[in-house]
């Protein structure tokens, strides 16, 4: 991300930047994004910028521009050409916006395939956690993921 210092001057310390030319942004729910980012930070690839919006509870991953980019998923937002994003200066946090991984100044971005894999792993983790939280309404025994134990039919 090459951004001139003049964009950060002023009392707000934020800039509104166009997506689609130098990067696109994939925005996902916070719970999913944090797990995916943890996974991405464990790989040998240099990470791209990741931005947290603490009020909207979302994580944005900065990816190479892809005019045909189509990310499909529940509550997934893809910001490409003709979209804008508000970001704090790379060296600071501003209100609700925080860099989880700040831009490195060299233009490093996340690899889309790596982000996709990390998001899939995060979804599996969340599904497993949800399954572990489900309990039989009668005896309280943990149920299998995605299915609750039900009392036996009294007719049998």
Describe the structure.
The chain is an alpha+beta fold and 156 residues long. It contains two helices and seven strands, in the order ββαβββββα. The strands form two sheets. Strands 5-2-4-3-7 form a five-stranded antiparallel β-sheet. Strands 1-6 form a two-stranded antiparallel sheet. Helix 1 (30-40) packs across helix 2.
Summarize the structure.
With 156 residues, this protein is α+β, with helices and mostly antiparallel strands. The chain is built from 2 helices and 7 strands. The protein has helices at residues 30-40, 112-133; strands at residues 14-18, 24-29, 50-53, 58-63, 77-79, 84-88, 97-101.
What secondary-structure arrangement, pairings included, does this model have?
Elements: E1 14-18, E2 24-29, H1 30-40, E3 50-53, E4 58-63, E5 77-79, E6 84-88, E7 97-101, H2 112-133
Antiparallel strand pairs: 1-6, 2-4, 2-5, 3-4, 3-7
Helix pairs in contact: 1-2
- Helices, by number, come to 2
Estimated share of beta-strand residues? 15-25%
Largest sheet: 5 strands, antiparallel
- The SS-based structural class is alpha+beta
Task: Give the topology string: H per helix, E per strand.
Answer: EEHEEEEEH
**Unreliable residue runs:** 1-5, 145-156
What distinguishing features does this structure have?
5-stranded antiparallel sheet, two-stranded antiparallel sheet, disordered N terminus, alpha+beta, 2 helices, 156 residues, globular, disordered C terminus
């Amino acid at each position: 991300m090459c951004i001139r210092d003049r964009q950060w001057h002023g009392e707000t310390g934020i800039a509104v930047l166009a997506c689609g030319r130098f990067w696109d942004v994939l925005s996902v729910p916070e719970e999913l994004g944090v797990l995916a980012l943890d996974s991405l930070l464990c790989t040998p690839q240099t990470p791209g910028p990741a931005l947290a919006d603490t009020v909207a509870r979302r994580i944005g991953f900065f990816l190479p521009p892809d005019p045909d980019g189509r990310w499909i998923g529940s509550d997934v937002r893809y910001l490409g050409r003709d979209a804008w994003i508000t970001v704090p200066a790379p060296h600071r946090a501003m209100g609700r916006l925080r860099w989880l991984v700040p831009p490195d100044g060299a233009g490093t971005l996340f690899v889309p395939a790596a982000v996709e894999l990390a998001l899939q792993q995060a979804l599996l983790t969340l599904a497993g956690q949800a399954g572990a939280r489900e309990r039989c309404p009668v005896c309280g025994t943990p149920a299998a993921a995605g299915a609750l134990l039900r009392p036996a039919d009294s007719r049998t």
